[in-house]
Every structure is written in C-alpha cells, then in structure tokens.
Batch of 2 targets.
Target 1
Amino acid sequence: MADAKKTKKPTAEASHGAGGELHQTASVPEARITTNHGVPISDNQNSLKGGGRGPTLLEDFVLREKIHHFDHERIPERIVHARGSAAHGFFELTESLADVTTAKVLTEVGKKTEVFTRFSTVAGGAGSVDTPRDVRGFAVKFYTNEGNWDLVGNNIPVFFIQDAIKFPDLIHSVKMEADSGYPQAASAHDTFWDFISLMPESTHMNMWAMSDRGIPRSLRMMEGFGVNTFRLLNEDGVATLVKFHWRPKLGTQSTCWDEAVKIAGADPDYHRRDLYEAIADGSFPEWEFGVQLFTQKEADALPFDILDATKLVPEEVAPIRIIGRMVLNRNPDNFFAETEQVAFLPTNMPPGIDVSEDPLLQGRLFSYQDTQLSRLGTVNFHQIPINQAKGCPFQNFQRDGQMQTHVSKGRANYEPNSLSESGEDGGPRADPKGGFRTAAVPLEGTKIRIRSETFADHFSQARLFFRSQTGPEQAHLASAIVFELSKVSLNHVRLRVLANLMNVDEELATRVAAGLAIDLPKKADAAVEPIDLDLSPALRIVGKYPETLEGRQIGVLVTDDADGKIVDALKAAAEGEGAKVKIVALKIGGVTLKGGKKLKADAQLQGAPSVIFDAVAIVASQAGCSGLLKEGAAVDFAKDAFGHLKAIGHTEEAQPLLDKAGVEPDAGVVDLGGGADAFLTPARTRQWDREPSVRILA
Ligand code: HDE
C-alpha cells in the first residue's frame, strides 16, 4: 500500500513554500514573473514532482531554465584588473585644444560628454579586497559624438615594463603563485620580487607602487594617468605628442600600511562602498583633466625616450594644461551589466586622437579587443548597452556572430555595392575627411627584435622619484620594501633587489638592508649609469592635498550618559564642512545620553573600528568609559586611531581609555571641552609629526 503521505493530494497548505500563498490568491500581480521566453509562472517556490514527496520531473522547464541560467551566471573575470568599481558621470571641456586636434570632445568648450569610469586593483581576483598594496586602474569611457574614446589608464604614470611581450610574465609573477594558489592580491611574495629583481626597467614603477600611492585612501583621492604617449592630430594633419592626466579635487591621499591591512578585514569593500556612498549622498567625486603637449622636437630634446612607458615627463619640465573636468554623479544600476561587462579598448579613439609607437601601447592595441572574446564570449560585445557608442551609432557591414542583437535590414552586407542606384539602401561608406586618421609618421629600419638603446636608463627616474619625496614618504617607501622583502623567502632575490636599489639611492638601499638586518651587496651593473635629474616636488603627496573635511568620515564613539551637546556640536560643525559623521556605540540600538535622550547608533563598535574613519572622537561619560576599558575593540579604536596618525577628540572622562590605549598628548589629541573647532583643525589631515613616536620606520 502506498504511503499515505505520498498519496495525499497536494493542497495549498501541503504545497506551500517559503512564500506560502501559492494557490490561495487569484488576483493578478502587477508584474508577473515569467520564464526567459515570457511564459507566466504560477509557482516560484516549488518544483514539479511526482507526488508531494516524489522525485522532481524532467518536464519541469521552469525549474530547469532557472537553474540552468544560474549555473552560467559567472563569466571569466578579467585576467588583470578583475576587482573594480565604477560610476557614470560626465566630462566637460573648459579649454579648447582646437589648435592641435580635431577631436570634438577636446574642442567643444562647455559640452558635456557622458562617461563611465571604472577603477580597479590589478593583481587580485574579482572577490578580493579593496586595499592591498597595488596599482589602481583608472579607465574612462567617453561616449563622444564621434565614437567611444576609452582612456584606459592607471593611478601611476609609468609602467613596470617597456615591451608588451613581457606583460604575461609580469602578471604571472604578481598573481598568486602557480602551485599554491596564494597569496591573493599581494605583491609581497617570491615570484613577483624575483621577476622585478631581474627586470631593472621595473624599478621606477616599483618605487611608485611601494610609495603611499599604492595604498590610496579612496578612489576619489587618486590621480589618473594615460601612461603611454599618444598623439593629437589637427586639421592639417600636424601631430602633437600628448600625455593625459586626471587630478582629484580632493587631492591625492593615502592610508598607512598598517591601516590598509586592517581595513581589508574590517571592510573588504572599503573603496567600493566609499565611492558608492559618496555618489548616493550627492558628494560627487570630481577630477581635473589635463594634458602635457610636446612637439616631436621637444620630445627629442628630453633625456629619455617618450616612447618608453617606464618614464614620465616631470610637470616642472612640461606643465600640465588643465582643459576640463570629470564629475561622477550616478551609480550603476546593476553591477554585472555595467561594471563587469564594460569593455575598455585603448583602440577606441575618435578622429583627432592617435597612438604612438610605444611598444607597450602597441601590444595593448591588440590585447583588449582580444580579451573581451574570452570574457564576454562574443565578437558582439560592443552591443552590450554599457559598451554601445552613444550619439554615434555604429554602422558597418560586419554581420551575425553569437548574440547578435542588431537586426540589419536589406541585403547590403558588402562594399562596394551599387544597390542605391536602384533605390535600395546601399549602406554606409567611408568618410576620408571626417573619419579616423593616422598620423603620417615616417618609418624606416630593418625588421629586428631588440630593445632601443634609448630605453636603457632604468634608474635615473627611480632616483628622481625617491629623492623628490618628503621625509615621511621616503620612510614609508623604504618600510614598504622591507615589508615585502621580509615576505620573500629567497635570499638571493632580496640581495638582487638591494643591488639594484644601490643604483637608485645608496641611502635607500642602506635603510632597506638595515630593515632586513642583512648585509648590503655590491651595486648591480647598470645598463646606463643613472644621472641626477632636477627634483620634482610635484611627485609628492604629503603637503600637496588640501586640508579639508570634505570627503572625510568622522567616527564618534558614544557611551551611555555622555553629553549629547558635545555630539551635536561636533556633528553640526563637521557636517557643515562636508564631512560625514557616524555614531558608533557598543550596541546598534544606541545609547541613552545624559538627561535621558536616546541617540541611535549608525554602527556597532565591533563592525566600525577606527581604521574606517579619517578622524575619531570619543564622547564618553565616566561610567561609560569604565565600560569601554573592558572592551578590546574600544581600546583598539583609540590605539589604532593614534597609530594611524588620526585626530582624536575626546571628553575628559574618556582619558582612562586613551591612557590604556597608549595615546600620548600631541596637537592631534584634543579635549572636546574646548569646542569642536579645536578638533576639526587636525581632523582635516594626518598628524605626520606623530609618526616617529608610533612606528619604527626604515
Ligand atoms: Fe591593461 N589590460 N594591459 N594596462 N589595463 C587589461 O583588458 C594589457 C597596461 C589597464 O576596468 C585587460 O579588458 C597589456 C597599462 C586597466 O575594464 C587586458 C598590457 C595600463 C585595465 C590588458 C597592459 C593598463 C586593463 C584585462 C601591456 C595603464 C582595466 C581586461 C602591453 C595605462 C580596464 C581587459 C577595466 C585591463 C592588457 C598594460 C591599464 C588583458 C597586454 C600600461 C585600467 O587586455
């Protein structure tokens, strides 16, 4: 006899799922859920079974389609720059470059061109953290009326290698090691430093990566660079060499290394969240756009080759002309459809912009188009909405292919054709005047596989960068190399790095060797002896960014019985200057202030350590502070804020917590009894003077 349970007829009660109401309501919902082919679905909770407890039937196309689609939701992540965050916005030209280019995006002053900008780390996978020491991608897609222009840059103006043929080696070396699968999103391991030590040309960029530029505070606080040299072409076909620059309105700012490491645990999405929240709050990130322009003659007079991507042109040598601005003012609606599926191609350029012979750029011109096929799966990736040209729809005779969504009409799919002579649509034709033009660069030479002699100086600009930094920045850079080399297990690699560093700056090499407690080796032979270039203060961060509360977050740790007036005054003053204030408490429900008023918390202490704030305040009562003394997270809150050079405002009653956390009095530790202003002054920046008392730097 069949089991009673099995034979029981399914009823509304017996067949209910998580949502419950399956057979009960007869009303038609406003938006009906359907299959991908539009068939309305009656039950999205239960699969089709042979009996209530029976096996699921193959016939269940609703279930199969849903699971099938889910099984294929993931696409291959980018081989580099897999982890990214993006936003929509606009570019506005403020100064015309009509004398040097015909590209309308650079000549129509006042015109706003839509952009989509994606920032990224390089080495980590799509699910890795936001704050490793790494280069950051800075890719901007301008939807111009003459086709898309993709300026695919980085937050560092030079690159590790000079020739595209070394790119797979570079990336293999920095990614997780091939046998063990770790470390994820980190350059501090054997294979990366092995490669770097054997490739002296990488020394300059590595200086940048080891500097505080490698650990940005926010995506909104990074510079961007086109890196490679490009050309602009004017009406007469005259070419001008150009380097592109983005400068953040909030200034270039960074974290401390110890802070970046801790943020990775506290909030792996720190940068993504920061960008998203800033835009959602209406604090739109903004950058100035600038160009460095050179004639070929001026470029030839430089002491290095402008086609060598391991070299920059100091601003002091060729000033940056600011010609526009970019504002990011809209978050993506859908991460996958936009941020993940966006495809940037350095080959996307409107007429009037052209490439140079930089051998790194030349390789990139092939790679980006090619990689989209493996990532997005079809040659028709340009039809995905985020990649479509806007204001300049594509039209050509390319046809078909997987995921073709464009329904071409007529039979003109070849050219030349004369179909229009009998009234048919003959399709588009090339425009010799208004179409894309290539600079008439004279070429000569023999086919040969060599590196140009003009690329041979690997150390002068690395030296220029290091020596142009302020004291604290030099100390951070040296300490970063010590940290990374301490994670390297191969002593011969450490020694080779040091031997190369001797060519950059002997004092730097000595400091790193001392930090590792190993003997300094002999200087490595340099292909060309480095020279001392004029220092470039423009390469610094410290002392350059504006001291402002704009874009900063202040965490206020509040306890029961605390003085609410202090919190209110601080909040009003800080928010009045553009900061964001978050109330942190032991419990998310908040606290009861002196006088009985309730104050809701924005975050619970365990989930809001001070590393995620730019400055902190501790508004505690005496009893409240006694409670905090028993909570390790509260002690760390104060200790880390101090160690990370942040301003700390506090009530007198919070002093025992500061004492326990080892917070020493200095200009950045401020009693809030004197009013909010005394605290807001140090809160506008980091307390660099404090550093020697909290860290042993190399
Ligand atoms: Fe890239 N790079 N790259 N790169 N790159 C990619 O293209 C490549 C280089 C940069 O947010 C890939 O669509 C080669 C320099 C950014 O989607 C790939 C070489 C600079 C992004 C590729 C370089 C960059 C990429 C992977 C040496 C700064 C992310 C996914 C010849 C100017 C774009 C993709 C985004 C992405 C190749 C060097 C910046 C594999 C072969 C130099 C910002 O095609």
Target 2
Amino acid sequence: MASEHDAHGASVLVASNRGPVSYTLRDDGALAARRGGGGLVSGLSAIGPGTDAVWVCAALGDGDREAVRRTGGRLDPDDTGGQRVRMLGIPPEVHGDAYNGIANSVLWFVHHMLFQTPVEPSFGAEFRAQWASYEAYNRAFAEALADDAGEGAAVLVQDYHLALVPGMLRALRPDLRIGHFSHTPWAPVDYFKLLPDDIARQLLRGMLGADRACFLTRRWADAFRACCDELLGGTGETRTGVHGLGADADFLRERSHRADVGERIGMLREQIGTDASGAPRRTIVRVDRTELSKNIVRGLLAFRGLLAERPDWRERVVHVAFAYPSRQDLAVYRSYMERVRQLADEINAEFGTDGWTPVLLHLEDDFARSLAAYRIADVALVNPIRDGMNLVAKEVPVVSDGGCALVLSREAGAYEELGEDALVVNPYDITATAQALHEALTMPDSERGERTKRLAAAATALPPSRWFLDQLAELRA
Ligand code: G6P
C-alpha cells in the first residue's frame, strides 16, 4: 500500500481544523482570500522554500466551501503564500456538530473546566449524534492525510478537534510518523471523567495512536498521562512530549513598526487622553478573543474595584480592552460578549467624566491596533481562568516601547515561563487582581523596564520555528 504513495506523497503534513487561509465570496462572485498568521504558519515556513509539505484543513464557511468547489480542495498557491493546502469540504451539518457541538461545547469546556456542573453537561441522545459527526469529521481528515502522505512521512495533527485522527491514521498507514499537539490545557482526571467512559477512552486511545502526544507545558502533559493511567489502566507506555511555544520576535518587531501601527498609536493616544497635569493617562491593556476562558468579565470587575477602592486613579488611568468576536454560533459566547459590553458601559456610566472614558472597549478584530496597544501599554492584563499557553503575555514584552508590567494568571501555561517577572494572580480573586493592577501601575519605571527585558527574553526563547522543527526532529528520531 505504501509504495503507491511514494511518487507524489508529501514528506511532512500538518492537519488542523482552521487552515492558513480563508475565503469570502464577494458580490461579484470572486473569492477573496485572507491569510492568517500564528505559530503554525511561521513554524511551517521554517522548513524552508521548495518543501513538499501539505497542510490539510477544513472549509469553515460559505467562501471556503466555494473555494473547495472551484479547486477540488487543492488551493491556489497564490492565495496561500506558496504553501500547499488541501481544504476539505466536509458537509456543513457534520462540521457544525463536530466543531460547535463536540469540539467547542464539550472538549474545550472539559479542558478549560468551564461547565456549570449543577446543570451541565448532560450526555444523551443529542450528544451521541454529534459524536458520530465528530468521528466522521476526524475520519475525513485521516483519509485525506493517508492519501497525501509519502512513505514514512511525518504528520503533525493539531488540537482537540482532531483527537481521533492519530488512531484512525495509524490503522490506515502504519508506516507514518504521527504526532499530536494539544494547544489547550488538559483536564485533571476527576474533571475529564465528566465525559462518558467510552468516549473518554476513545479520545485517549485516539491520541495514543500518535507516536507522541505533545503539550505546551509539563503540567498539561502530566494531566494527560494521569488520565491515561486512570482510564486505560496504565496499558503500555504513554509517550508524551512538551514543546513550549514562544513569541515570533522577528515578525512582531518588524510588523509593529509599520505605518498602520503608528497611525493607530496616534488614534489610541487621542482616545486615552491626558490627566490633569497634561501627562498621558496610564494604560492597562488586554487583547483576547471574546472567550469564556479568558476571564474578561472578572478583569473588568477588577478594574472597577481599582477605581472604587483607590479614587486617586480616577481620570488618570484607562483600561483598553480588545475583545474580538469568537465562536459566535454558540449562544453562551454571544451572551458572554453581551455581558462584557454591558459591564464596560456600566463602569463608564459609574465613573466616566466629560473628558475621561475609563474603559475603551473594542470588539472588531484589528491586528495593527492590537500591536499599537502592545507598544504603548503600561500594564498588560492576562488573567485567564485556564489557558494552554497565552501568547499575548509573550508578545507584549517583545513589542513594548517603554516597558510594560504584566499581570498574569497562574492558570496560564505562560506562567511556567514568565511567572518570576510577572505579578501573578489567582484569576478568580478580583480583589487580588485589582491590587496587582495597582502595583503594576505604581511599579518604578526602572523596575518595569528590567522586568520587561527579562520577560521578552523568556518569551522568545522558543520561537515558532524551533517549536516546529523540534517536533519534527523528535518524530523522525
Ligand atoms: C485556540 C485553539 C485553536 C483555535 C483557536 C481559535 O487557540 O487551540 O485550535 O484555532 O483557539 O478558535 P477557533 O474556534 O476560532 O478556531
């Protein structure tokens, strides 16, 4: 079987739900391609030009599906920056159940511990039907990878969307080297056991179909092994790996000094304004997807606490909160976004004055504006309930112009690498978070500068290129 793959098969393959490009269908019938960024994109570019690597991903919307219809799923390299991409046209109902139903409403919730357990989850007939779609969706990926892989190729499967792929692919192509990478935390055993036993085992076995199941930190890898021991009874050895992902310093430094970012710094400064002495107001920045696990609501409550408890800060500080739309098909995400919006309005109504808007909330995604905020922030607030790594915590110190104090949740993976120079908080403790914000705002400039330097060094120790090449080397070893 393998030999029929030799001639054209790729030697490296990546699989992820969201690919490096997405399409929108314009009114005139043309397709507009939009390229994404992120660690995988720059990691993959590290294997160099002229590579035969293939990236397999799912069509996510109508534009993507139209692109698949027109190209047969082998996308135009002009749209992808030269990367060979195979986009799978999975039926929308199947993809919807797998992505919204299982991946984002069950698996994401388990690993981030987001369930309101008195009422949810409940695993009945609807869940079982969605699970069948999750299996079908994983099978579509496994079959596409099996088709496109050359003999002995290395396949890097990404995240909780595709937990069953390694096992399925192993059965189709025993010759392949397969890695799975979880970009999320992994649930503690007792929480993972909320899942029906057969499903929990199927997930673990699916991932163990890989030669290596990899995680962003030791903590998540240990949790995964504990689940395997408990649910699979320690059958065989669980091969895990840990590969931290750092900020892409070269890209960020170059990108954050382009003209569009400069323009946005001007716009932000205008909105932030100056205090009574004419000095620019202090700025607390956060940048997130509007994501339940990011803890945006408690961040706003902490800022309100700061203004309530320490009236000195009124008129002198602004909280710049960028909360970009995410997973809006899910009602719970829509109402979370509404809550964020309401709370920002309440704080502005309670404390705002003619010349001062305490919370500047922006809900439309704008990468250049995010970089502008990184550059001018005095304080970055990164307070997730739980987070696989959190790259904002790593990007800010790299980009910061004048030094930025970092208030960081101990539940973010980044805490393991940045904990020493951050002000560390329990993300549920609003009082402590408000206190940390105060300390961050009053930190002497020299200390803030020193800490920022050390944070930037730690944050860039493992650039995406190394993250990717290390995994490849380990797989091939
Ligand atoms: C997390 C996940 C990624 C996912 C991203 C955005 O970082 O680990 O796999 O792509 O969130 O979420 P979305 O549902 O929009 O792809």
